[in-house]
Amino acid sequence: MKNINDSTIEQLINWRTFQTNQHAVANTLKLSDNDAQQELLDQLIEHRFNKYTATELSELITAHDNNLGWAITYCRLDLVSRHYKQLGKRAAKLEDVSTGIIKLADDSGNTTDISEFKLQQVVAQFPTGKTRLFVDMTLRYGKLETMAVLKMSNKQYQRRLRNATSYATKHRSKFDLVTSAVRDRQLYVLNSLNELDAIINETREGSIQGWINSHIKLVNELLADSTVRYQGTIIRAFNQASKTDQYAFITECISQQTKAQDWLERSNEAIKEAGVSNQTKTL
Q: Is beta strand 111-115 parallel, antiparallel or unpaired with respect to 101-105?
């Protein structure tokens, strides 16, 4: 778009939708309001408004056109996404507020720290662009701002929230793939069983009994799913257990080792897909 005039810019920056997204940029990227305003304006003019003539744009702003409002919101998401992609190239992970740790607050005022990267992984698991935007804004900015930006009534907001929550519950295994606590648990299981495998194959010093003593909680979980008859003997004195029970225990370990490996491969694929960007998915 060429020759956007000062009057049109003034209309734009006074539009509540623009101001809400401007404040969101300032809060997320730790910028002054003026800097956030300029960043958002530059991004809009360069990427989102170039299909309009100056006259068309002025008319759409005056009418508070819904599609134009969405363009501003998506532009803000583009801006934030680009910022964190640039950070990601300079650092292996996001570590503090200045590099992407944000606080999610619940209705009771309790907060949870999460990295921008991890939040985007979780949000990307939702099926549509509109749902991803709704969840992202709700987690970052809360109910009131989300309703204001998306122009939703309380009833509409509650319905969207129920739908998003229902989807997450129904597809919990999908979300678990990018959840740190679950992934860390699977990594622990795989690494521990790889260690046992190395001991059995004598590529690592140690004994099976020593491994058992160091992983009692995991061993109990493995035994609970196994066909081992005398489980106490496996725990106390593996070498004194029957060959049948020894074999049953090792078989269960191999089975869980394979399952953990498969789970992590699916997790890696989910994280890879989530890291591409919400913008590449169907909106």
A: antiparallel
Q: Which element (helix H / strand E) includes 253?
A: helix 243-276
Cβ count within 10 A of residue 99: 16
- Give 178-246 as a 3 state SS string: CCHHHHHHHHHHHHHHHHHHHHHCCCCCCCHHHHHHHCHHHHHHHHHCCCCCCHHHHHHCHHHCCHHHH
Residue 3 to residue 168: CA distance in whole angstroms: 46
pLDDT at 279 over 50: no
Q: What pLDDT band is residue 97 in, cutting at 50, 70 and 90?
A: very low
Sign (positive/negative) of CA torsion 6, 71, 276, 145? positive
CB 130 within 8 A of CB 283: yes
CB 172 within 8 A of CB 125: no
Q: Are 212 and 234 in contact (CB under 8 A)?
A: yes
- What are 53-57's contacts with CB under 8 Å, separation 24+? 53/1, 54/1, 54/2, 54/3, 54/4, 54/5, 54/8, 57/1, 57/4, 57/8
pTM, rounded to two decimals: 0.42
Residue among 29, 76, 75, 31 nearest 49 (CA): 75
Please tell me which residue, 101 or 35, carries the higher pLDDT value.
35
Please state the φ and ψ torsions of residue 49, each to the nearest 5 degrees.
-105, 5
